[in-house]
Amino acid sequence: MPQISANNSKQVSFDYANLFTFAAQYIIDMKQEELVKNAPAMIKELVAGLIKKNPVEILYNFEDDDQWSIVTLHIYEEDKEISIRLHENEVYDLHLGYYDKDDEFHELVKPLSEEEKKLLPESLKKVMTKVLADEEGMRLSGSFLSK
């Protein structure tokens, strides 16, 4: 809000913290929109990368009442990672993690639709289901996931 000083000159003050918070949220919203729009391409990129990888690790994790199996592809050249998480009741999430210019890590999450779930190889779904049920991670050859 403009303020009038004793010498009648206007002084304008900005709340830079709010401005930067707004800008950061705008960028995150743009990235979230990009994630939603490009989810099928990201899933295909993840699967293609996993098939080439040896070994592939499917991990088990939990927090409070939630538990999941997760598989991640790190793309170091772009400072990002793409993950798929399987929660109970066959709920899959796509996670995009990336570093911003200030080297802060951000993670965006999108639940997968039924159509997007179909892009995952059956072998990957079976292994992720087993990891979740057994509550124990697993390592295997990426070529196994192409079946």
Please describe what this structure looks like.
This protein has 147 residues and is of the alpha+beta class. The chain has one domain. Strands 7-6-5-4-3-8 form a 6-stranded antiparallel sheet. Strands 1-2 form a two-stranded antiparallel ribbon. A hairpin with a 2-residue loop joins strand 3 (56-63) and strand 4. It has 3 helices and 8 strands. It is globular and about 40 Å long.
Jot down its keywords.
single chain, six-stranded antiparallel β-sheet, two-stranded antiparallel ribbon, disordered N terminus
Could you provide a short overview of the structure?
It is built from 3 helices and 8 strands. It has helices at residues 16-52, 114-117, 122-134, and strands at 3-4, 10-11, 56-63, 66-75, 80-87, 91-99, 105-111, 138-140. The protein is globular and about 40 Å long.
